[in-house]
Amino acid sequence: MKTVKVLSKGQIVIPVAIRKKYEITPGTTIQVFEYDNLIYLVPPAKDALKAAMGCLPDRPSLSDELLTERKKDFAE
């Protein structure tokens, strides 16, 4: 874990190893959000679709549940 100091204007310096790893250069837009008492800095994804793949669980499938319910409705 790296430690950084907050400057007078609320700025921080991201360590060079992390900037290189995530290709953060001057002008890069980074998302900032918080959850509980944690602050996250999220660099842009190189391929947003690839990054999003797999973020949702396979099950339960709401479409499967809907189709099952519809089949029951038609069977009655």
Descriptive key words:
76 residues, two-stranded antiparallel sheet, elongated, alpha+beta, 3 helices, 13% strand
Write the layout of secondary structure elements.
Elements: H1 16-21, E1 31-35, E2 38-42, H2 48-52, H3 62-75
Antiparallel strand pairs: 1-2
Describe this structure in words.
This protein is α+β, with helices and mostly antiparallel strands and 76 residues long. The chain has one domain (16-75). It is 33% helix and 13% strand. It has 3 helices and 2 strands. The protein has a two-stranded antiparallel ribbon with strand order 1-2. Strand 1 and strand 2 form a beta hairpin. 0% of the residues are buried. The model has no long low-confidence stretch (mean pLDDT 86).
Structural class: alpha+beta
Distance between the termini: 61 Å
- Arithmetic mean of pLDDT: 86
Strand content: 5-15%
Radius of gyration: 22 Å
Helix content: 25-40%
Written as H for each helix and E for each strand, in order along the chain, the element string is HEEHH
The number of distinct structural domains comes to 1
Major sheet summary line = 2 strands, antiparallel
What order do the strands of the largest sheet run in, or round the barrel if closed? 1-2
Shape: elongated
Q: Regions with pLDDT < 50 over 5+ consecutive residues?
A: none
The number of E-state strands comes to: 2
Number of H/I helices:
3
